[in-house]
Amino acid sequence: MPRFACLVALSAVLAWSSSSRAQPGSCPSGSDAWVEVIFSGSAWSDGMRDGVIRELRTELARRSLQVCPEAGPAPTRAPKEVVTLLASDADHVSIVGSNLANEGGFNGRTILVSAIPEDARSLAIAQAVDEALRNSDSRSEPAPAVEPTSPPRRPPASSRDKPRATWFLATALAPTLQVAPPAAQREHAVVAPGIALRLSMMGAVLGGSLGVAITRASDLTFDDVTIRSFRVPLDLSASLRLARGAAQGTIDIGLVAALASYEQASASRSNLELGGRIGLRFGWGRRVVPWIGTSLELLPRATNFEFTPTGTLGHAPSLWLGFTIGTEVKWP
Amino acid sequence: MALSRYSCGALLVAFASLCGCTDRSLQFGDDPRFLWWTDHETGDLSDWLGKSQQGGFVLPGGSHVEVVDGIARSGTHALRITDDKPTQRDFPLVARNGPLPSGIYTSAWYYLPAPLAPLNYWWFVLYRSRHPPYDFGSFRDEIRLSFTQRADGSMGSVLLTEELGTIAPLVDREIPIGRWFHVETYLRATDGSDGEFKAWQDGELTFQASGKMMETSWAEWMIGGVCDGLTTDANQLYIDDAAVSKERLGPLPPFQHDP
């Protein structure tokens, strides 16, 4: 849903900002050579179609080729080439150098448009079509006797050519379940439900995140002695994120500092427990990403509970497992 | 990720500074399993006489019951029982008042610098019942663990009860000389048939009896010495790290004080 919304928004921006919007009426007439472009698939928006036609006309004008979409007025002369642009989903556009409906066949190329900034997708598709047509020309025409001496073509300078944004911010809010397995002197597991908040700054692959969890107080039971425990773990992690389409997996490795408060009878004590944390998150989406995650916290310096006159009666959990399910929102 | 590393360090330092607490151990005061305990580090008998609402008392008889430094299991002080009347019956004892809760554990560590050789008995653990009007004369010595001499000449122990007579040991353990040993007992003090008594030496169950244990359910715990006479000059018993608890403690490490 957000992807389609983006395409619609992009087309609106382009319609407002561009003075050279493609018009169906600008299809060639007379003896001009032209290329027919057929948009196929359900993922095209009107704005994106217009954008691709506009950019493609700019590209092919250098080679004296006119461009006409399938829906435009039919020129009197047959097209020099027919290109079908197939977009069945918002992530991919396939370029087929033939008319799919009438001729069949699939000899084009597919480009992953979801990896391209939205405001540069039209140009990218147009350039890919131009490249496909050049390859087609080179296969059907004799090679030139002399290599062309013209300088390499430079892409036109425009706002679309600005470097792609490489960082994004993300916020995730999720219910979490923190579990400490049984350990020596403590027969029962500790289960503490709560809420987790995680802020991330990510590049294409690497980044960092800051997470905090606030959990409900829970009981640590040692024989017949019960200690009330409340803890707020805060972690700072390096993150590695791998994405394939809308699917993404993230691993967080970092340090955790847990502010822990313990109560027994009328005595209340607090301590800062330090350790390491590793977390795994799996999500699906682009701007709004539902995700599920798990984590492991190791706290080698877990708090000892000392009593007079017996000394240490037990220890705070040194291992916590976390299970979280929630939603992440990204900017931009 | 250098930024992350420095940021993390700064964050943790700031967090720790705010909290002001980086110790690994937290002291919570008295162990909730204990109803009463003493390690004698006050240097006197005040823990026996008070410390908890139950209170207690000291019966020196014609001998000495005192807290001394030198030989101790924890800290520097311990209770020393000295029988100064080797030719007659004497009863240097310390006690915790009754009525003790039904189903109670009592424990202490004992140290004999030399083997004791009583004429017939040296009760070192004693439960006394008391009946109306609960004054100084209305009691009966019900259950007692006594030092004995084993066939090989070493020291052992025996369980004697008013209601059930002499109880054979489950395990006949030697009483060590020159080494601290732990004796813990459990008493469900009822005047019916559902009473129970157990004793552990250094964590091993040595005596067990069930049935009517006492004349009444009013029980007092006493340790030290009730002795009918001595055949040698050895006359001292040291006691340390004594406790009354809701559950079995076992031979715990030496008691610790608040840091």
Structure overview:
The complex is a heterodimer of chains A (332) and B (259). In chain A, a hairpin with a 2-residue loop joins strand 10 and strand 11. In chain A, the strands form three sheets. Chain A has an eight-stranded antiparallel barrel. A five-stranded mixed β-sheet of chain A has the order 2-1-3-4-5, covered by helices on one side. In chain A, strands 14-15 form a two-stranded antiparallel sheet. Helix content of chain A is 17%, strand content 47%. Chain A is rod-shaped and about 105 Å long. The N terminus of chain A is likely disordered. Chain A is of the alpha+beta class and 332 residues long. Chain B is mainly beta and 259 residues long. Helix content of chain B is 8%, strand content 42%. In chain B, strands 2, 4, 5, 7, 12, 13, 14 and 16 form an eight-stranded antiparallel β-sheet that branches. At the A-B interface, strand 10, strand 11, strand 12, strand 14 and strand 15 of A face helix 1 and strand 1 of B. Strand 14 of chain A pairs parallel with strand 1 of chain B.
Blueprint (SSEs and pairs):
The complex is a heterodimer of chains A (332) and B (259).
Chain A (H helix, E strand, L loop, with lengths): L1 H16 L16 E7 L5 H16 L4 E4 L11 E6 L5 E5 L3 H4 L5 E4 L8 H20 L27 E13 L9 E13 L3 E10 L2 E5 L2 E20 L2 E18 L2 E18 L3 E11 L5 E5 L2 E5 L3 E13 L1
Parallel strand pairs in A: 1-2, 1-3
Antiparallel strand pairs in A: 3-4, 4-5, 6-7, 6-16, 7-8, 8-10, 9-10, 10-11, 11-12, 12-13, 13-16, 14-15
Chain B lengths: L1 H18 L5 E6 L3 E5 L7 H4 L6 E4 L4 E6 L7 E6 L10 E4 L7 E8 L10 E9 L8 E11 L5 E7 L3 E3 L13 E8 L7 E6 L2 E7 L8 E9 L8 E10 L14
Antiparallel strand pairs in B: 2-16, 3-6, 4-5, 5-16, 6-15, 7-12, 7-16, 8-9, 8-15, 9-10, 10-11, 12-13, 13-14
Please indicate the percent range of residues of chain A in DSSP E strands (runs of 2 or more).
over 45%
Strand percent estimate of chain B: 35-45%
List SSEs of chain A in N-to-C order: HEHEEEHEHEEEEEEEEEEE
- Strand tally of chain B: 16
